[in-house]
Amino acid sequence: MPPFTVLHVCLGNICRSPMAERLLALAIRERLAKQAGGAAGTAADELLHSHSAGTGGWHAGEEMNPPAARQVRSRGGEVAGFGARKLRSEHIDAADLILTATADQQEYVVALRPDAAGRTFVLGEFGRLLSGLDSAALPPASLDPDAFHARGVAIVAAMDAARAGAAALPGDDLDDPWGRGDQCFTRVADEIEETVQPLAAALLP
What we know:
Elements: E1 4-10, H1 16-35, H2 41-47, E2 48-54, H3 66-74, H4 89-93, E3 97-100, H5 103-112, E4 120-122, H6 123-130, H7 145-163, H8 182-203
Helix pairs in contact: 1-3, 1-8, 3-8, 6-8
């Protein structure tokens, strides 16, 4: 039930998945601001819960990696309140959509919770499949939390049907920018936006 819950997963939960978490929330807030005349703060939280975790727990409790935080801030997102954490089964169980940075992490999620296979995608894979989405077949777009949730769940089901059991492609993986320069973080953040912005547009056309 609402809000529509998206779980982002990477390795240590300080670079890729936090950027995806906050950039998806930003994309929804921006679309809401246009539709609701700027009164988007609480409404966004009622519609979407975007959060993240890592397959490893060695950074638990840490803030976002500084260059990742710079990317989020420079694009208009918020970094306050973030704390890295290790992925737990209950995070998966409560998610309507799970987006992983790589195919290895997708396999990790599905090994932990096999029943989550139909809603677990590599982030680049999901973005690639979204380009073929038939919006006319979805429940109507709405700012009502129940209707928003229903549309989100329908999008996930449509993307699972579209992949028809095919594995993600090597190019769907996000590079790990940890320990690399701002140029690498910029590229990875751009690739994240290539999926989260179309997802926000599909949820709130």
